[in-house]
């Protein structure tokens, strides 16, 4: 399958520090004894610091396991899978053409029920890709014209997907077997809607209204239940909130983009916690985009300017980062949205590489 | 003393406001939550700067998942060591596009899917560059000088004004935009009024004298706004932006404001900005139907047209057009800077005579439309029909063969020349010049009846009577008019039955049988019943003989 581990660099260079200390002490008759003693001391110190670090994690028993990320696949596929292609299928392809979706600027991705949904800002369409059957359906605005500014897509448990267009200021939906994208509630005008997520817990749609600096909670008819937050830097306030994620427990994770932080709310919209700071180094945020959580509650945040995905635990402790700027597998060029499905598969809309990359999280690795 | 202090305060206030006016503070790029300049703890305590200029932290957070510490600092401002592919933003443009993606700021700052293509380096002859480039924005992140080398119409990087700057030789967002200063609209380095910004890089040939650069015409407010993306009110002020828009262009490939491409022309040339209403002309039944073809015309296509199409830009160069007049056969300013085929069949990039433009499609082009009347001598190539060596022709390329044409109405003489558009053009007295659309077949300016048994009237042959005096032609008493009277007025034979209005090619006809544009319409005239000949024989001044059979009348021959 061509899997490739992206983290786990076992760099065992701890001895170099010790040697440097030895040089400073100087050499004597009892050199060997000193060496042995110092090595023991240093090893103990090193071990204790490592333990100290992980003790932070180990308070939460689930977090002792650290995610390992493997690259699996991408859309469009790197190579057409030649195997198991029936004659009729090949004949079909000969006349109809290959059904590999060419993406131009995939901005958001959502996967459910063996279907992958991609919002393509370049094509200005919503694509539904059923890879198993090789079927791609494109959805247009108003039947034929393009969506000017597609941002984010989410889905409910009945197979309906909801997505936002920040220029039309509308929320759209497509039913499970729907053939058209429809506006959710004609009278609903939002102020730059961007992130959207569906709460399975209380069947509500949460939309980030970036220019209103608030979260808007809607019922499935698109009626506003309430709005949460206002512009500001305090907890529960927002400065250009963008992407949202809601986990299976109804916990809401919001990218508060221009406050360079993630804010976490409970299912009723009560503020729980926040983490994140602006900075140009790993663990900080420069331009955070999509957010998602895996089955164990770790938080994944795509950062467009790091061209990387950062992983945090529930408390906001920085766990890991993967990816860098580039075109290879596991590399990104301005990644935007990220989605994690039930089987811990990560889908990253790698916008300027014109593809969606798919990774698998393995969690069986104990530290 | 008091006045001095007052002046000082006033000066200081003016200075301060001007400073604020030019700064990022309170501009749309000021993303801070407070109106006052305060340190925002979130943006790294660096006030308005930190939203884009992510503050530097000396050490990264140590990833708990990794066994040993690695310090990962991201180089956010230097250009990346890896080379961006065409279509991928590099350098500081990454910074812009990480917000301008439709979330925090409006997006549509897209990328070309392929390398930007420039005239001279692109498509092969005859193959229009069908758009694989789906971007609707001006390309960025490409080597500027490299494109300037391959395109004469791009200024060399050394000659660029100082406020257009390239980042490591590459054109980036910041080449046009100064994100810190919104004193010119849209954070531009220099205002684009009169297209100052565009023309810093783009030296379009002929542009400086073009009507689209100089015209002071305004939009009269009727219909749709021809300039939806600018606030400028005249054609001259809009300049390039009359037709083009640098971002989110509907007509993607050439960044035209409207798609389909003719809309870019017709949104002004509908009487609302330009005085003439070309849009109305194109509603008529016979027209150069620009609606039928989309994105087919390519500025780099051959002068000789291989695939039949017609777009506004096939006949008009919008960068070059002027209102300069001309005398036939010289092309006027409306046709300036256009390709064509000369009278000897060689392609030219800049036509001198109007007919050279028509010859692009109606002469040697393999997909030219055929002639409408079936004739004894068939010829679809109008260049051969108007050749000066022909036995007879209408005087398009030069004065005609016949130096005794008494019917000509002054100021026309036997030495006159004419335009194709004197016959082929929009009908109606006040219609704009040029063959845009007409109610008469063959896109004729006036009615021209070709059916047999047409009872003669001024209207029936209105086209001919514009230059040839009806009374002279139909005069009964004079020998020279008698036969015309007999055929046209009494026997109801249309002009077109005997005369081929374009001309007869010297390769097919001769000066005995085909002088005076004689080339019979074989749907109406057939060979005579005795000799089996269909022939006109010229026997000199106002005399000749005809062999033919026509509606029961056998000439075998008839002499005059």
Give the tags.
heterodimer, A: 367 residues, mainly beta, Neuraminidase, 2 domains, 5-stranded antiparallel beta sheet, 4-stranded antiparallel beta sheet, B: 560 residues, alpha+beta, two-stranded antiparallel sheet, 16 helices, 6% strand, elongated
Topology overview:
The complex is a heterodimer of chains A (367) and B (560).
Chain A (H helix, E strand, L loop, with lengths): L3 E2 L9 H11 L5 H28 L9 E8 L11 H10 L9 E7 L2 E6 L4 E6 L4 E5 L10 E6 L5 E5 L4 E5 L7 E2 L9 E7 L4 E6 L4 E5 L5 E5 L12 E6 L5 E5 L4 E5 L5 E5 L12 E6 L5 E5 L4 E5 L5 E5 L12 E6 L4 E6 L4 E8 L5
Antiparallel strand pairs in A: 1-2, 2-25, 3-4, 4-5, 5-6, 7-8, 8-9, 9-10, 11-12, 12-13, 13-14, 15-16, 16-17, 17-18, 19-20, 20-21, 21-22, 23-24, 24-25
Chain B lengths: L1 H21 L70 H7 L42 E2 H6 L20 E2 L1 H4 L21 H4 L9 H4 L20 H4 L23 H5 L11 H4 L4 E2 L24 H4 L24 E2 L5 E2 L5 H9 L19 H4 L6 E2 L43 E2 L23 H4 L4 H5 L4 H12 L4 H4 L4 E2 L30 E4 L5 E7 L2 E7 L1
Antiparallel strand pairs in B: 1-2, 3-7, 4-5, 6-8, 9-10, 10-11
Strand content of chain A: 35-45%
CATH class of the largest domain in chain A: Mainly Beta
Radius of gyration from the alpha-carbon trace of chain B, in angstroms:
33 Å
Report the CATH topology name of the largest domain in chain A. Answer: Neuraminidase
What is the overall shape of chain A? Answer: globular
Number of strands of chain A: 25
3D structure, described in words:
The complex is a heterodimer of chains A (about 375) and B (about 550). Chain A is mostly beta strands and about 375 residues long. In chain A, about 15% of the residues lie in helices and about 35% in strands. The longest helix of chain A has 28 residues, at about 30-60. With about 550 residues, chain B is of the alpha+beta class. Chain B has 16 helices and 11 strands. The longest helix of chain B has 21 residues, at about 1-20. The interface between A and B is large, with 72 and 53 residues.
